[in-house]
Predict the structure.
Amino acid sequence: MKTILVIGNGMVGYKFCEKFVAQEKYKDFKLIVFGEEPRVAYDRVHLSEFFENGDADKLTLAPRTWYEQNGIELHTNERVVAIQRNTKVITTRSGRVYSYDYLILATGSIPFVPPIKGVHKQGVFVYRTIEDLENTMQYASNIPNGKAAVLGGGLLGLEAAKAIKDMGLEPHVVEFAPRLMPRQLDEEGSKVLETKMSDMGISVHLNKATQQILGNGSIQGMAFSEGDPLELDMLIISAGIRPRDELAKACGLGLGERGGIVVDNTMRTSDPNIFAIGEVALYNQMIYGLVAPGYEMAQVAVDQILGKETLMAENIDMSTKLKLIGVDVASFGNPFTTEEEAHAIVFENKLQGLYKRINISKDGKKLLGGILVGDASDYNMLLQLQQNEMALPENPEDLILGARGGEGTAMGNVMDLPDDAVVCSCESVTKGGICCSVLQEGHETLKSVAEATKATTGCGGCKPMVSDLVTESLKSLGKTVKVRICEHFDFSRQELYDIVKMRDIQDYDELLDTVGHGDGCEICKPAVAAIFASVYNETANRQETIQDSNDRYLANIQRNGTYSVVPRVPGGEITPQQLMALGRIGMKYDLYTKITGGQRIDMFGAQLHELPLIWEELIKEGFESGHAYGKALRTVKSCVGSTWCRYGMDESVSFAIEIENRYKGIRSPHKMKGGVSGCIRECAEARCKDFGFIAVEGGWNVYVCGNGGANPKHAELLAEKVDKETAVRYVDRFLMFYIKTAPPLTRTAAWLEKLEGGITYLKNVVIHDSLNIAEELDAEMQSYADTYKCEWKEAVETPEIRARYSHFVNSDEKDDTIEFVPMRGQKMPKAWT
Amino acid sequence: MISELNTYEATKLEEVTIWFKAAEVSKFPKNGGACVKYKDKQIAVFNFTRKRVWYACQNLCPHKMEMVLSRGMIGVDGDDPKVACPLHKKTFSLKTGMNLNGDLNSIATYPVKIEKNFVYIGFSE
Ligand code: SRM
Ligand SMILES: Cc1cc2nc3c(=O)[nH]c(=O)nc-3n(C[C@H](O)[C@H](O)[C@H](O)COP(=O)(O)OP(=O)(O)OC[C@H]3O[C@@H](n4cnc5c(N)ncnc54)[C@H](O)[C@@H]3O)c2cc1C
Ligand code: SF4
Ligand code: FES
């Protein structure tokens, strides 16, 4: 049996062990690991999370028992102090001696502390180990509201700045270079990032050469070669790393000019029995301060010892994405091409804090690299395009602007990636590996694919892409990808709808007990609430705690926690009497009033306890709930129509009122809106609505599935020149079919887009009754119309419901933290800071 | 505003010196929350009926500093009980106070006990 000693139980040293025990032949070897730190290897990449939860165990890569179970001898808190190469033994700090056949140096690096005068004062820290963080936090707790800076505006420095902010200190970043993240960003990218940083309250000081750390014993500030000194109570140094090559140096291994143990592409040092991997290894004259290359080195060393011919890749990918700090920043490939090398396409939107740059080869065929600030959602796909030298779309600018018009995205489909494309670079998992684990090994969820392949378990940046690959692979197997509402129900909305109806389930808890798991969440509760509302036509008052924010109190919550009040004004027709009533009530309760985009009046700024009082008065004046808070019918807009308008073909207002009253109160997967225009001039914008009627010579044209909002879409023609009764019947069926089959929060337009067969299929169902369900749909819609009740009336008349409307349960006082400021003769909430 | 946040400090069971008698159990909705006034503080109290546990936390959402958490929806994230703010659905653990879907400051949580049909909240001052 041969002995392998691993010096260093950090991320890469651990990975070596993990990869080694995965080999069949590992039983022929004895593995002994030495770690200088008191704890077992932990996830340094996510070190900053320690600031949030103080939970060191969460970061552990594998517990001690894992080492035991795999026959690995682990000595923590045990530094190796000497290597004797001629006799192949090492000595530890406690004086123990071990001999080896192979030696793995995985000693990592330490933070570089520049030789600045005063740098050893109290209150100056580095950022590398859990102990560093503990010391920093301890110190910070003694300087409440103090000021702290990070020396170094690189990837790590910015992370540290965020940590300072989270500790409640005033954060500053001091950088020598003229820009932030100088290795990843160009000047414009850095400018956008600076703005983002200052929005987050982090002050950035560039072009600063630090001369001295000021203070008497403990730090009080920093002095620079130019400009005013910066007053400080604490400093974190993040100015780069230095490989821990002291052991190698002492035993005469080949080192680089500026440190680091020289290795070849087999990870061997100048002594063939000694390997160096991770941040201590100097490969291609570079130290790679990232885990992914370290993990690859670990694999190479494992394979080489076992006699396989795996070699380290020639080019190491240094693409990176900033994590955790609340700003998306990524750079990949070569971010800094010159004009001779490549065309750079740049998109910048200062207002939104966006900067995107992609470098395209001169022949327009390849993506060479790029920078993303503000929105890095396309990072994974761009990285793949670059790494695999994939064909680019006709207009490469679509890659950062998005395809404008037409279907699909410029990025193409994940399934177009070559099989050997590395999707998870931390764990070197390829697209082929992920698809294979789904197609051949039968893993069907992201979680089980992650467990099997380890993809996504490193930095996690590849998660969206891996998730897409799993979904697409499942689809290619003909498996419908299980659309589940959330972790508590393994069913789609349509399935749950049927379950509630068939099994006659009465409330949310019963449903959860019958077919769900756990205790629910803010995703399934409102979705299920909408199902109950649709199946039983019940109001939001019955199961109030599963309703979404607005439904729970039958009002739309506003910025400062007050509410708006929107009474129904069917068809937009309102009498002068009603207008005066609204005016009176608005004045009495000091409400801000505005005409909405839906032809009615919104009154804002009511406090929780005022809602029943206001509604009581509104109801007395003949108003009803406008359901502005619900996934329900909002408004049916109308134009004035043939009663007054010289072009009108029919009475659009009468029709709009009739139809609004027919559908009011019905709950649906998303809100529904209608419109009725008296002629094709279309003043009611009926073709932007979920359903619309337009009067034409000879009857009504019926349109469905239009949408304004975020993705505008014109409605499609469902039927032409039909009489009013037929028009209503068609829309009854259409809405009922939508209510029963659409996923939660899907408007009719988006639903139609996904409906196989599209509008033709829908016409068949609605007009030709191809599914033989028309009768059922008609009856269900009629029963809605027959059982409508105004839920606000119900609320004000029922003492138990009314009691919900008080800010405190133990006091009649109102919430005195709400502040308003005047605006144009009315009031508005005090702005958020 | 930050000073407002600092008025809420998480209290552990062993630190409780005052049990504040808040209101009768029946005043709180099942599987939902309500707000309790204690001195100048607003405390959100949740009756997690399904789990048979009560939770209390500050009513102030650290996202936009609004007094709204008691009106949020409760649920679980794995086993962790949580509340979702009604304004932008930021979620917080009702056990640890941690922000579960972002990196906002944690909220302060307080012990709750039920005695003779009354809800008590534990404070250390
Ligand atoms: C008040 C109003 C703006 C105004 O002052 O005019 C408004 C206000 C809100 N709209 Fe709207 N929308 C209003 C007309 C519209 C219109 C115009 C229309 O209906 O003709 C549209 C585009 C048409 C459409 O929906 O297709 C519109 C498209 C949206 C959308 C995007 C929907 C989409 O499919 O993309 C949202 C977001 C959502 O629902 O998810 C939205 C969401 C909202 C919310 C509910 C956001 C929220 O959750 O707080 C706002 C609530 C304000 C409140 O408290 O009352 N609002 N909203 C209008 C109320 C109409 C009414 O009388 O009920
Ligand atoms: C805050 C932070 C954030 C980071 N974020 C990212 C990121 O987002 N992406 C990324 O790719 N990388 C990131 N990194 C870098 C990443 O953590 C390192 O690349 C990785 O940890 C290197 O692994 P290593 O095993 O080579 O070194 P280390 O993890 O440092 O492990 C070396 C270990 O060897 C021990 N040791 C040294 N000498 C001896 C001795 N003589 N005897 C016994 N033990 C010894 C050390 O104590 C240490 O425990 C981050 C680093 C930090 C500090
Ligand atoms: S457009 Fe946006 S801001 Fe304006 S009311 Fe609608 S949701 Fe609110
Ligand atoms: S105010 Fe609570 S989530 Fe925004």
Q: What stands out?
A: Chain A is about 30% helix and 20% strand. The radius of gyration of chain A is 33 Å. Residues 510 and 548 of chain A are 19 Å apart (CA to CA). Chain A touches chain B through 42 residues (CB under 8 Å).
